[in-house]
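Appendix B. One record, verbatim.
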Amino acid sequence: MKRQLIILPIIFVLMTSLALGAFDVTTTAVKKDIFLSETAEFSVTINNFEKIDDIFSFSTQDPSWVLLTQQIEVPASQNKTFLFKADPNANMALGAHAVLVKIKSLRTNEIRTELIVVNIRPYDPVFGEYRPSVQFAASINKEVDPRKKVPVEVYMRNRNALDIEEMEIFIDGKLFQDKIITTLGPQEEKRTEYLFTIHTLQEPGLYPLDVQLRVKDVTIASSRQNYEVIGYATMTIDRREKSFLFKKEEVITLENLGNAQKTTKVNLAMNWMERLFTDSDIEAKVVKTPEGITSLEWDITLNPQELKTITVTTNYRTPIILLIIIIIIVILYFVFRSPLMISKEAVVASSSEGGAEHLKIRLFVKNRTRKIVERISVIDRVPGIAELEKKKTLGTIEPEKVTKHEGKGTIIKWNLDSLEAFEERIITYEIRSKLKIIGNISLPSTRVKFLSGNRERTIYSNNVIVTN
């Protein structure tokens, strides 16, 4: 073995002493002391002296080594530095090994050789002859729905002959953690999915996932990545309605069962008449659909797990109470109003240059009910400045009694036995002024007494002002 190590460097020196051709190669060790499960690494620089891009291939005739770097491209008139890797055979003996690597230009077929020396280290102080070498990967969905199980997939491949009888897998996703103990035989490959549960109301955001492989309390591989807990909003709407005595109350309850804020629209169909008597504890706007349906609309924003109620009250009590009062007033009016009506009018019958001197007065007595009114007395008064003209006219009712009074003037009384339903009587009389009346003259109201039921009632007519 030692003789081989002496001969190979001599060959290497002889070859490198040849004149430089289209390219040259320099090599620097990066990782030359390795275990059987590890990869040797060297920093290699290739100088391309040609004025055209070239591709260089790497090969070796030593069957104990697998070259992981196969080809490299170097631009024209440039150099390129890269990491050259080589894996030892699993059955290779411990100690130093010289590997002759052939570098060939695919354009010119020119060949250079490089000698790399790799030391296979003896037993590991912790693990013995073989140090664990596991190809490892952990994966999780980029987006995680908190309402579902969260899958974490772990891939492991034992790259050497070590039988790992106890391996710990530490999974820490911040929102979930676990420690799994497993085994991994020589050259064995495993792909396992682990399911985790997080709180359904977990706040959306970015969280880290750390996965480590440990053997004998030594971390031999690890993975770190991020995943995102997505936001969701499940909005529930409940409507309850109750009515009592012309008052309707509708309570709309909204609840966000998700983990993210959400805004939703709530509509309540309602015509303009209903809206006049409707109020809500949250202000609404009036909208109209393309079909022409008018409704109240609310834009409600709810945070996660927030509950909000809208109370809509349609109250017809006030207008109905007012209507009832009006109806009662009308009924009372018709119940208690006088069955008789009396109105009075006066016109100037004749006048002279000095003023009015002759007036004609009409009294209209009417029964406005369906019942007969009996024992009716009509009493009127003529002011003292005038006197009653005693004149009989066909079709007029003659007064029952005429009384002159110094202070009150002349009092005239007519008696009517009865008035039939809706019957009207007209009493006409004339007065003549003792003096010429200039300007306006006021005539007092006429009084009517009649029998209503078992009691006597009295009503009065309007006052009359005659303009000369």
